[in-house]
Amino acid sequence: MIYIADTANLDEIKRLYYYFPLKGITTNPTIILNSGTTFVKAIDNILSVIGNDMIHVQVISEKAEDMLKEAKKYKAYFNLGENYYTKIPVTDEGYRAIRLAKDAGLKVTATAIFTQQQALVASRAGADYVAPYVSRLDNISSHGIEVVGDIVENIKNYNLNTQVLAASFKTVDQVYRVSKCGAHSATISFEVLEALRSHPMTEISVQKFINDSKISYSDIDF
Fold it and tell me: Which DSSP letter does residue 140 get?
């Protein structure tokens, strides 16, 4: 499973890219709003850090043809290449837009997915990634991890050219469980990424190494 950061905050992206083996960034209008900047500035900021890694940019139009026009505009405006995925919600117009975007040579991430059938329809429409929302399903007494597992199983059983981009996490345990059920990738908030890479026992162990090294490594200068 590959890790992607679900943030448009420049400071968070810089910190994560300093040490974390990320493969890209996902955005949506809410994430950009929470970053405290505007759309164009946020995308420019992200591109200044991530190089050729993936960037997933969501369309806001409601009609399929307008979604396609918007997706093409972003690709041209920001001079995006193979690293660009247009995020399209799985509305009725969205399913049509997925086909239009694929016919136009664009890569697509189908987003706002809450059921296995939505993901299957998006896959059949041509989506490169399908993004089921794990925590939001759990919040309405559904089972987000099971939905992800069902989508992964469908992709295998039907030999679909689609990957799962699991999204919407509140806990490290949710990330752990989607990785165990075969999700190909996960887009995760800064806070959860920071939490999953650390453990108190690691800090204790490293501090003991440092203390002991003052004696055991005393015969060498650094």
Answer: T
- Residues 222 and 216: their CA atoms lie apart, in Å, by 14
* Residue pointed to by tokens 């075969």: 182
- What is the band of 222 on the pLDDT scale with cuts at 50, 70, 90? confident
pLDDT attached to residue 165? 97
| CA–CA gap between residue 94 and residue 107 (Å, rounded) | 14
Question: Of 87, 102, 170, 180, which residue is the catalytic one?
Answer: 87
3-state secondary structure of 135: helix
Residue 133 is classified by DSSP as B
Torsion sign over Cα 124, 147, 186, 157: negative
Q: What angle do CA 126, 128, 130 make, to 5 degrees?
A: 95
What are the tens digits of pLDDT across the range 159-210?
Answer: 999 999 999 999 999 999 999 999 999 999 999 999 999 899 999 999 999 9
Helix (H) or strand (E) holding 56: strand 54-58
Q: Distance (Å, rounded) from C-alpha 90 to C-alpha 93?
A: 8
Q: Is residue 87 annotated as part of the catalytic site, yes or no?
A: yes
pLDDT at 136: 61
Helix (H) or strand (E) holding 205: helix 200-216
DSSP states along 66-114:
HHHHHHHHHHHHTT--TTEEEEEE-SHHHHHHHHHHHHTT-EEEEEEE-
Helical packing angle, 116-125 and 92-103, nearest 10°: 30
